[in-house]
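Reopening: structure tokens for the 4'-deoxy-4'-aminopyridoxal-5'-phosphate complex, inputs below.
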Amino acid sequence: GRSNEQFWKSANDKLIGFGGGWMPVRIVKAKGTVLYDEKGNRLLDWTSGQMSSLLGHGHPEIVETVTKYVTNLDHLFSPMVSDPVLDLAERLTAMLPPGLDKCLFLSTGSETNEAALKMAKMYTGGFEIVSLSASYHGMTHGAGAATFTVGRKGYGPQVPGNFTLPVPYAYRSPFRHPDGSYDWKTELDYGWDLIDRQSTGSLAACLVEPIVSTGGIIPLPDGYLTALKEHCRQRGMLLIMDEAQTGMARTGDMFGFEHEGVVPDILTLSKTLGCGLPLGATITSNEIESVVRKRGFFYLTTHLNDPLVCAVGAKVCDIVVREDMPRQAREKGALLRAGLLRLQEKYPQYIGDVRGRGLLQGIEIISDAKTKAPGSKLGAAVADRCMELGLSCNIVSLPALSGVFRLAPPVTITPEEIEEGLQIMDRAFAECID
Ligand code: PMP
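Re-run output (same inputs, fresh job):
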């Protein structure tokens, strides 16, 4: 094995940086909710890997499925259909309402959004895309152009025709009134008015997450998706929902759109669907699929409908339905949220807001309760201390605003592991504040 010195030297010498720093841990094993470093230290995984390990690491049924398929039916020529692909398509569409009838299975979130955007452009004949100002939809050129948090500069022109609506950020919006009420509707109408004045008249689709996750755990206010869908309808646009993080039970509903009962024209799933393996799905209606098919929609990738990962996806569907994972996310989410609210009561100067649904929660760090001045430095210090004390959590930052802890543990987390993590956070806050 490598010494730690060799490990970090190799990381610096041999890997292309992603744009941030590597976390200062060397994880050698992941099991359930727990990561182990090279010395055997435990670290609770409250990010579910990259928000993906919905059922924890090394779930026995996932291990069994991977073993079976890697041995017997791993990968095929893309135009060959196989049974696990149909198993996944049948299970998923049975979990979804009519209008989400047909599936395209890919590998990543970026890819699923690329496919959705191309489909919407082909269906509507337009090319302009609207997304939220704190959006994250991927790293590829199309999904990246609809992403307004990171990665926009230094590559020449973006894909043309991408507009942004202000993210409905109740905590800091200028449309929040002194009495605490939040007039998101006027903010939304105002955003559309700006877009209408910039658009060339070729609007194709609006792409949103039900809870804007990487942009700061911002749940869309109740009624927002209904209003957004109406804005889309008036302009002949499709509504695409990106449920990379919110799909598959995490928010307490099986899919985030169920919270308000607004069915998107196209739904994209990834991360949670593969439970840590690279699987994504773009799902749409019979009607949209038949129109784009006639118009020559072509989308074939190396891992299109791959049997191995589709078998895993089908197993994930079985488990989340059988174990009523939405209920588990609601119940455990309520425990987590109660603990976070207790922390806010204890540190009101530094925790400005607790928000989210189910097991996707965020706490916004401030440095002054009156002015709500961002507490990004304290947030980073607390996150670092949590890591040292055995809790892996993640700070996401709102562009130019502040730091938000994003907490998204596996839905299989135990109440004891929730309590343990909360205690670590409490201790980290106490130590970093004085
Ligand atoms: N959409 C959302 C909402 C995401 O959070 C992410 C990943 N952070 C993506 C799309 C992109 O997925 P991937 O990294 O798998 O391409």
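The two ends are 40 Å apart (CA to CA). Residues 103 and 283 are 4 Å apart (CA to CA). Marking as resolved unless the reporter disagrees.
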